[in-house]
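tool_log.txt
---
The assistant was asked to compare two proteins side by side. It first ran the structure predictor on the initial sequence, then on the second. Raw inputs and outputs are pasted verbatim so the downstream comparison step can read them without reformatting.
(1)
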Amino acid sequence: MTCFYLFTSSLLPMVKRGVLVGLLSAITLLPVIGAGNPAPAYLSKLPRPQQPTADLTVSGRVTDAATNEALAGCTVVLKGTQKGTTTDANGDFRLVVPDGSAVLVVGFIGFISQEVPVGNRTTINVALVASASELAQVVVIGYGTTTKKDATGALTSLKSTDFNRGVINSPEQLLQGKVAGVNVTSVSGEPGARQSITIRGPGGVRTGSTPLFVLDGIPLDNSSTGGATNPLNFLNPQDIDAIDVLKDASATAIYGARGANGVILITTKKGKAGAGSLTLSSSLGVSNMARPLPIFSADAYRRQVVAVGGVLDDQKASTDWQREISRTAITQDHNLSFSGGADRFTYYGSVGVQNQEGILKNSKLNRYTGRFNASQKLLDDRLVVDVNLTASQTVNERPPIEGIVGAAISANPTYPAYDATGAPARYQAFTNPLITLALNKDLTTINRVVANLSPSFKITKDLVYKLNLGVDNASSTRDLQALANAVPQQDGRLESIYANNRNVLIENYFTYTRNWADHSLTGLVGHSYQKFVIQGRNWSINRFPISPIEPINNPGQGQDLTLANNRPGGFATENELQSFFGRANYQYKNRYLLTATVRADGSSKFGANNKYGVFPSFSAGWRLSEEPFLQAGPFSDLKLRAGWGQTGNQEIPSKITQALFTSNVSASTSYPLDGSANYPAGTTYTRLANPDIQWEVSTQTDIGLDFGLFGGALTGTLDYFRKVSGKILLEVIPSDPIQPAATYWTNVPDMTITNQGVELELNYRYVNQRGLRFDVGGNITFINNVVNNSPYTVITSGSASGPGLTSATVNGYVNGQPIGTFFLREYIGIDEKGVSKYRDVDGDGIGGTDKDRIAAGSALPTRQFNINGSVAYKGFDLTANFNGVAGNKLYDNTANAFFYKARLVKGLNGTTEAIGEANESINNAAPVSTRFLKDGAFFRLNNLTLGYNFDTQRLGVNRWVKNIRLSATGQNLFVITKYDGYDPEVNIDRTVNGISSYGIDYLSYPKARTFVFGLNLTF
């Protein structure tokens, strides 16, 4: 909890009045001074100087009236002034006041503020009475706010005190494991790696599952601006005050066309009126590889190569190649923030630096951020101007991950890593991964500025107009460099890619609020316009001399600029969204709640016949705990919710509704008209126009129950949801064979993707009078996904990688099966010849053909569960967060490509999995099959934090330092799983023709185990 107090006066007008009175007095008295004239009568009306009084020091403690627990960080302010202080970790405060007539105003979030006269006391203890803090909690719902007790949609709000701790790169990591129905999966362990996040399951074939992120009212574009890292890495987690997750259509429909996958609203920290504060936080993290692959050691390798009949090439060394390419990585994170203000102006500013080394050598992510938020009230508080500005630079260096990981897990461990001079050893048999590290670099620098100006004007006491002007501008430079080298031989190359991503927003909306008798009504109508411009250019140059000067610093040394090898490229796209939206919230007797929302979205991506889509929603709530027949019962809160709504999805390629032409002359675009082999020049269609394409539509139903028991000590939420996505956008084969293009885009009319399930969330809090407090909670989600009425027997995706696996696919979208299904040959063992056997599904007598592939499980978990708990006693606190999934599988493409007996015979390293079949032939191939499909369930201790808040009063520094906190955090301390890869939480992108892939692991960046030590100071 954080403290709050809004001051009701300003010093500036007082100062101005005092100066003016003094000047008038001096001017008036000048003619009469020393003249013996009596003082004018009006002088008696002028303020007379007050006699100085002795200051009075008041101290005391602020506690919870119900539990007698000390309230740390509570605001104690001298009424009518800006003079104040905050309570320390023990709830104690000390304040100097002018005299006994002073009044102290004591306030704390979730408690009723008190005004306490000082009188003749020097010790004042205050017991604050809790308000309905949980129910009164403010949540952001898009274009406005509400309280938790009044919400009718399925939503969850997380405050900064609830966030995950440790080394955090993006906001998704802050809420991992915290929200029922939300599944966050790291694509890999790389610093700044993309996070795969789904809210109540994926709803599209090719549109992915990423929700809409809205930062301080600006809907962000999920496109990455250069590089392969997460586009949300620009945000400093230390600046985030709250994250609100909107899950069902009744909550997300206000965002219409982009709400099908859910909405995540990010609110950054704002200043508070009162005494200014300065906060400094620093942390140091130490990371190591958590779970190296169990490849053979040098001694085991020597035995196994001989055992399988291979010829041992023994160079007498004992090299752990995974250790050679990795390191103990150091992360530094430093943040400075300042905030404060008066009753009419508040501000918050911060600067932050995060330098994170990856556990693979030559891997790092550096982030530099600055933020300034301000709010100014004008015109008797009728005009409020809010400004939010963030600027950031991220510098990401990436090694050739797949290359060095693949070399490290397959290299002969008897070869030494270094030669006699200490340099990386060079071999003809294979390339030392340390040399690959030294020769190759992928460096991306992204500069991003996000800002919005949001003035609001109170036209009448009930009607407010708000304007929201926002801009999100990002530019990047990516350099891919390969140094020239003799052994191994490479010519050297530099490729540079420049990208710009600009997002401009203009919104106008009116909010009407009225309360009368037992009724309450809030209405909202508005208009939104957003334009996205994405541009990119690239060029390259080859054949650099072997030189200490890197090509990135002097491209002019390159000698090959032929168009065949280095043709420049580029692209540019523009998309626009125009929307009209409205929402009405009605309450009767504070117990019957109704919400209706509608949004009409028009997108430049769609054709003229269906450019606009309309997305409505309706929801209702019944606060049974407010009914007379339940007010004497055990429930502090009991609310039944139900909602229905529709949201849309427009994530398709730009301009696919328009015709496309080509003037190239080739056998596929022209035809000889005279019987010769001469192809005449001309312009032909490569794509026909399709003005009828329209939005994908997700129809969602939610029924929920919110409850609180034992005076609010036990709270919970139970939800049933069903989301059906229809009008699926898909690239299909035309039924008419005489077409200018092999495929075209359309809405498949009957195809649906259904997600349905149940969410349960429980939290319990206990506090006693001795200062002991503990919280324990968790959530579990049961979810099923199914594809129906697809026009194809199977839509393949998930391309496999590795020798002999090119063109093979792993995933398949199959009717009656979930998204992310593995569509594979079923491996049934080894035959008498030592060759793999596969089940004959179609009965043709030949097992293992393409027609024998089966649906072998899905990468989507059917159960997601999370447990979190904390305990605090006096200055100590301990917090733990666990998360896990079950019911899902993973395809180990790494084992498929690297760990089988034939490779071990050839002198490449392997694992016990590679020799698991004793009678397997050394000539047996390893095609894609269920042999490498594995259980993906896991249970992880995600983070554990131990902290201590020092008593600054006892230390004698409370006049200067309000709070001192030391903490230690462990991330990824253990994971329980049957999966034997680097980590079961992985999702390498293996998309085929835009069709999303799921659950594939191929030479992924290993996950780290990290220990973070932090210091926080508040002045």
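(2)
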Amino acid sequence: MKKHLPLFMMMLIWATHTMAQSEASLSGSVSDQTGYLPGVNVLVMETSQGAPTDLNGKFEISNLPPGKATLRVSYLGFETVTREVDLKAGSNSIGDIKLTEASGDLEEYVIQGTMVPSQLKAISIKKNSLAIMDVIAADAIGKLPDRNAAEAVQRLPAASVNRYHGEANQVSVRGTPYAWSSTLYNGTRLPSSNVNGNRNALLDAIPAEMIQYVQLSKAITPDMEGDAIGGSINFVTRSAPQDRMLNVSAAGGYNQKSQNGSYNASIVYGDRFFNDKFGIILAASIWNRNFSSDEIVLDYNLNMAVPAERYSINTMNAKRYYGTRRTTALNAALEYEFNADQKLFARIVQDQFDDIRPVYEAYYEFEENRYRYSNRESEYRTYLKGYEFGGVHHLATNFKMDWKLSSYESYYNLETPPNMPSDQKGLPIAQFYQDLEGDFGGRSADGHVYNIFDAPDGKGITPLNFDPDLTNENDFMDPNRLTLQQLIIYQIDQRDRDNVAQMNFTWDVNPDFSLKAGGKFRFKENEAQQTPMVFLPNARLGIPGSAPLRTLSEFQRMDFPAPGTFFQELNGQFDALAIQPMPQSQTFEIFSPEFMEENDINNYSPASNATTTYNGTEDAYAGYIMGTYNITDQLQVIGGFRNEFTKLTMNSFAYNDETDEVNPVSRDNDYNAFLPMFHVKYSPKEQLNLRAAYTRTFSRPNFGSLSPSESIDTSTGIPRISRGNTELLPTFSNNFDLMGEWFLEDIGMITAGIFYKDIDDFIFTDLSAETIDGTNFLVSQPKNLESAYLVGFEMGITKRFSSLPGFWSGFGVDVNYSRIHSELEVPRLDEEGAVVSTDITSLPTQSSNLFNTSLFYEKNGLMLRLAGNFRGASVETINQNLGPDFYIHVDNTFTVDFSAAYSITDKIKAFAEIRNLTNEPYVQYLGDNKDRITSSEWYSTNGQAGIRFIIF
């Protein structure tokens, strides 16, 4: 069969080419004074055939009769253009069509460069898309206080973000887990170097300046990646402009908690050469910000044998993050148009995200009756680099082929401490202990410490208003009594490489029916390591003749950074813990072979550490076919299927604790995904779309979840074990969507819709307790559950009050709201694995309420925008055996941001941004009591001001 396939393709192309010889096709582009315009309606009036312009402002219309024809070009807010053309048999190019702003109120908005041009583009793309899609354009991203790709996406309906130390880095769509949304870069899924081995790309490494459009598809079509239960987020990078351009921007800012400044700058240059055949665009960006956050972390004794004691508190950790984040990025795009029928293109990306953050941790260890103090020097680096090369070729007037080869790599690693050998690099943590002579107050009669509302005898603590109530007043945290007891180098390396080849064929069979088919082959390599190397002083182990333990006071120290802001939200109740930490140079000196030899500190890492590394290969073979049929001018049907076969091999090591032997282990996990899809789009009026869709999508298990390895972390209060599960199945979902879109005359819209997802083989991370050699561990391991469902409603409105008189005509609102409900059945098992009861809960990370709102003012070159983002409470982690009383939840969060811009001239614009005005903490809690916190983190307000120049 294979040897006949090329012959068949050649015959198909020849037959299509022969049929098309007597017909004509028409191509061209549409632009305004700022560049190419997407979503412009282009219509051949004699035949009523037409097409919208694509993201690059280009259009193609095929199956036209030769002869004279009238072309009608219309776009909201612009004067309609008609042009006479004389179509010859074969390909016809009309070149570029320039549109001018319509006279009236909209002309003022467009010329002054407010939000209107970006909303025009976004609304036009959404209106003409085949998928159910939301869009945000690059110039809108620049007008919001969003400095990375994830923060830009959170403004779209039914999208929410995870914040890591105050900065968004992952996106959830419609309340689904982060890994359920496919993150694409120009249509190709990004590799991920997520520290937990997850597939969701970390978007804080992608600056917003690199993005031209963000497309959020909530109901995909067969030509999109199928592993997208939540949706597909496509970041479209900048392409070569029509005319020469050079834009620069520079800004400076301030962080209230770190009491330090920040800066960012970007430059974008584009041009065309060789009679406009060769186009190029270069975009470079740097964003350097100093940041700080304070966090309380409580570990509970979930592994206690007595159920009543499981709410007792093992440790409370008050810690400060204080450091610098730096994002540097370079994007380049090249294209060469031989003619209207042949084009080649290439794109290059090089992003680096440096997260340099010392962490100072002070533990109250209630069960051990001691203090623990940690100095850690975190210098994480995330890289995203790669290239793609492809072409678009018209093999006939109605038959097109496009192809692309790409290679992308993402990796995350630490190159510290600098004095250690290359195979002993990672996150250095120096830990000091101080035993109490007396005791912490607040203990209950059973000897444990509880939150006051959990205490069996009413005697407990209040973490957000904490008093250690020491029985011995001399038991304060003291550098003279804190002794160095443990050094840990936590080796955290993640690397993900994708080599992808893809090809698509589009055949416009007749004016009403087109076929599209293609294939994609992705060859992935994934490597990861989460290895804790443990170094202990011989003196701690009681070995005679050992060098004495060193105290913190013996080392070089520095002033505590910005001490006046340390837990300022709690009125400084932890001020006594803000002791002078070691500077980075001193910490790195401790982590050196010379220091360890001098102080009799030796490597006591367990032989089982080999099990904490894994690598795998994943080959994905995908093919699809889809048809688009215009039943009438108002009714369009899109249907087809996609098939993805995944071949996976995971390699790690197994440890035999009886023989201390480490042996390699390899596991295969192959599966197939058949994904039918069907869309109906009905437009009874020009300004109205009604959409319905059925799609089947899936989610691959995370690499870390599939690993046959396990990792052990002893750096926190309770020792933890993370295990993989080689038997995991992919999660599948049948998705049903119904959506209405009403487009307003004054560049606004009203949308509303409902959606339902029927989910099989849901993957969750279970928490359980396990005792190994007398040590109690908290064990996390992914597992499959049989079924779940999610149902929701979403609505949005963007409205300008341009009909109001004078000053008031500049006001507008942008609001969207989602209400989501899900149910997941979690069986509880006895020791033999039999089901004894079933709990009903929501999907992890799924919030019942998501809400975005902004009030804006745009007039006379001034733009003011106050934006709020609300994410409701959600389950974060499920404990299968202990039940809902021990699930970890995330509390509601509501952030408010402000941005302003003023056009000094057509070429110069000043702007200012203030983020996190409400300074809301990010809170997690255990069970159903929001006061039983497991974590509470504060970030403070920050902002910046700057200027943008359009040089030409």
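---
observation on (2): The first strand starts at residue 24 and ends at 32. The CA atoms of residues 495 and 598 lie 36 Å apart.
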